[in-house]
Amino acid sequence: MFNATSLNRCESPVPSALARHCCALIRVCSGGTNRTNVGGPASSFGIWHEQADEARDVLKTHNLRCVRIHSHIGSGSDPAVWQRVAGLNLELVRKFPDVTTLDLGGGFKVGRMSTEISTNLQEVGQPIREALLEFERETGRGLHLEIEPGTYLVANAGSLISRIQDKVTTGTGGYTFYRLDTGMTDVLRPSLYGAQHPLVVVGREQDPVETEEVIVVGHCCESGDILTPAPGDPEALQPRLVHQGRIDDFVVIEGVGAYCSSMCTHGYNSFPASPEVLVTADGGFRLIRRAQCMESLWEREL
Q: Rounded to the nearest 5°, which phi and psi values hold at 61?
């Protein structure tokens, strides 16, 4: 269940046919849903592992040297998967004697919800360190290790403040809905692959005391704009127990510091991008991105 190779940092111009494949090296399935598993025969990333010998032939034909092997597994948290990834990578490194850098990519799971398990970097890192040291003892090749922990660092560093625009019900056997003034145009992850984000209701007049089970939806005109899907299943609804909210109360969507602002659908249904504010170390606020004006949505149309 792993794909293979991207020949990064080749030391002479890369032929166009090869350049199209310079993305990633090993793919092992790991992720919360199929939509975040980026390995296996159903994944298009990288070069399939069975083609490693063919890749070496391409290098030799064009007088190239592969100096980096790059892998990525998806957003899992299982230390055993990471150990397997390291082992598979090192086997490939043996086939490419010029490799000096091993990039194990990202995939450090962040538990945004209290029920989710974050990657334990100590559990992941120590066995991989030992594997790299053992490889160096066996081969005399000390590798430079690279990782890409972006999500792990920033996922819980951002929150989106929204407001309840409407509260509706579909009666007995149905649901109670909070309709917000935001949605998939700012946070696409729930609609895309059933991702979960903590939701905190903040009363404008007083702190809410009562609780209720609700479906929280966005402002786009489609049923897929939802913030409370079933975990890992964007097609299913799962009511969330929250403090009882009223129209104009705030709902804080937490854990939006990664794959939200950069991945959202600004402009869809003519909703512009929201402003972004940085909270400084002294408790102050600094505007770091202005709200998008409506005119910018059509300014490129001729």
A: -60, -40
Residue 244 lies in a domain: yes
Q: Are residues 59 and 147 in the same domain?
A: yes
Is 221 among the catalytic positions? yes
Domain-embedded: residue 295: no
Q: Six-digit token pair at 206?
A: 């007083």
Q: Give the whole-angstrom CA distance, residue 130 versus residue 102.
A: 14
Q: How many residues does the chain have?
A: 302
What residues make up the domain containing 194? 158-271
Q: Using CA atoms in the order 186, 192, 194, 197, what is the torsion angle rounded to 10 degrees?
A: -20
Model-wide pTM > 0.85: no
DSSP-based three-state secondary structure for 231: coil
Q: Is the pLDDT of residue 140 over 70?
A: yes
- CATH number of 254's domain: 2.40.37.10
Residue that terminates a domain, selected from 126, 153, 180: 153
Domain-located, residue 127: yes
Which of 133, 156, 153 is closest to 145 using CA atoms? 133
The one catalytic residue among 10, 66, 221, 293: 221
Nearest-angstrom CA–CA distance, 218 and 184: 7
Q: 44: pLDDT confidence band, cut at 50, 70 and 90?
A: confident
Determine, yes or no, domain membership for 301: no
